[in-house]
């Protein structure tokens, strides 16, 4: 690897982790304002140091391993969840030149890594030796397998239109033509919405958060985790959402493409905006039931995704889409 | 059993390192201050909310007070919580569960007793089933008095806990907080909100009058109407008049008293229930038992069990009857006829000690399995010192 690639990898990792840490703060502020509260205000200026205090608290807590847990898997699972969520960030281009891993099969690799992030979740659920954790993990697996299908199908729409699986080429195509949600709008906008829905389900966020439904499963997969191990699982969820927003911005919102200024700024701006919209959804909607969740995936999202892929293929053969 | 708390307390390897390597404690003092700052500004609460105090705690999380301002959020799993906030009455059956959840929390951890029930049991403290204060089995750090305390008091309790955390980490001696004093019960002299005569706004005289305590034993003139409401087409006890001939002719009921449900022979009452069910009385309203100790005139110890059924739908009618058996005998169960009788009969067995013959699962349902005696019997000692939660 060249020095430039190293530096850009580190830059991206730092950007993602910083934005995630303050994403925690931002979510609590946003949730507070939506419920006519203030959110954190006391710890630091406008409560800005709240994630730091939480982190310092979490590292000081006693690590507890249940007596009958699988010790190795129990220890390994939480860091892996964060790692796999972060890996995806390496593939996202933050600028025409600023892509830590600019590879030609970017889209399938992102989907594959998203699926891989499921394995530590299952590990955590299995190793905890706790019925709530196991049920949560089973739900997470079932949900991710189901929603992986519409995720792949909708990600194929920009691939077909741009004629490339390289994320940077897809953004470059949008730079030359239009952002995908702008034109062809009848393909881009539904595909974007479907992608966001499937991505929310992959990240286990409301309205698809049955794997950690508090009213039924205590805290789902993370039920038995204390201290920083819980911190990793907590962080991974936010990194997953953030990186998912970044991927959605790349595929549908033109990625680093902007009218002026540096490309990184536009990428971060779009990602943060989408991230906030996802939190807006989270604090507005209620949780779907398990059967409703499956019905939505297989009865609506999968057929709609298939139709969009076919339409996109037809559109590329018309004079306007060529 | 005496437990050495110091031996059980968890020390983070970071502290051990700082304390055991000479000079490191001085060098890392700023780090320690930073860690303390993190610890006290991120108190995640495990709401052990069992009653009305829980509602006030929820209000403390909502707007106006918003304890999220100081970084306090609720966690559903005890593994991720720092503070156990016991909000509400803890019963003897609940106490072992509370203790277990407390043991599942990782160190360092703290406990807040919110409300007079958690602090002392309050006016339930002499009740057979209530723990008189959670500090009988949990190390309470902060007491938040009130019945229930208002949300601001919850926030004040958390702020006091922050001070305590900081003082303890700075090495200052932190004395155990004394529980607040118990006040004498004051009967409310202001009319309640539900009172028809309560004016929309209270005058100054009324407020002043409410501050003067009415001495006990002088309730004043309180007209109480004990006559039951009259239901059209029913006897005073609610038994539909159409049932009187049925009871007299088929079930050998000699008389139908005006002030109590009619007494039916125990061996016939299952048949009566089935007959009534066929007549449309499809819902079992309640099963209630009472204990009658032996009297001096030679009347043997006995149990009475009252059942009530009702028709479903508009113009609902009620049918009720009593069964009386000597204390040595059992009452035939109604469970095969009304599945709803299962738990209600278990409750009567649990609290009064009536046996129901043919019941599929006659176990205790409310009290702990190892409870001795039946607390709603007349001969149950009122000052019964049951303390299995310790």
Provide an overview of this structure.
The complex is a heterodimer of chains A (322) and B (390). Chain A is mainly α. Chain A has helices spanning 3-34, 50-60, 71-89, 106-116, 118-127, 131-162, 167-176, 185-202, 214-217, 227-252, 263-284, 290-317. The longest helix of chain A has 32 residues, at 3-34. In chain B, helix 5 (52-61) crosses helix 8. In chain B, strand 6 (302-310) and strand 7 (318-326) form a beta hairpin. Mean pLDDT of chain B is 77; it is low at 1-8, 182-196 and 210-216. The interface between A and B is medium-sized, with 37 and 29 residues.
Rg over C-alpha atoms of chain A, rounded to the nearest angstrom: 20 Å
Task: Note the gap between the termini of chain A.
Answer: 37 Å
Q: Which regions of chain B have little confidence, pLDDT < 50, spanning 5+ residues?
A: 1-8, 182-196, 210-216
Could you give the count of β-strands of chain B? 9
If you compute it from the alpha carbons, what radius of gyration of chain B comes out, rounded to the nearest whole angstrom? 28 Å
What share of residues are in beta strands of chain B?
Answer: 5-15%
Main β-sheet description of chain A? none
Quick structural gist:
The complex is a heterodimer of chains A (322) and B (390). Helices cover 69% and strands 0% of the residues of chain A. Chain A is mainly α and 322 residues long.
Offer a few descriptive terms:
heterodimer; A: 322 residues; mainly alpha; 12 helices; B: alpha/beta; four-stranded parallel beta sheet; 13% strand
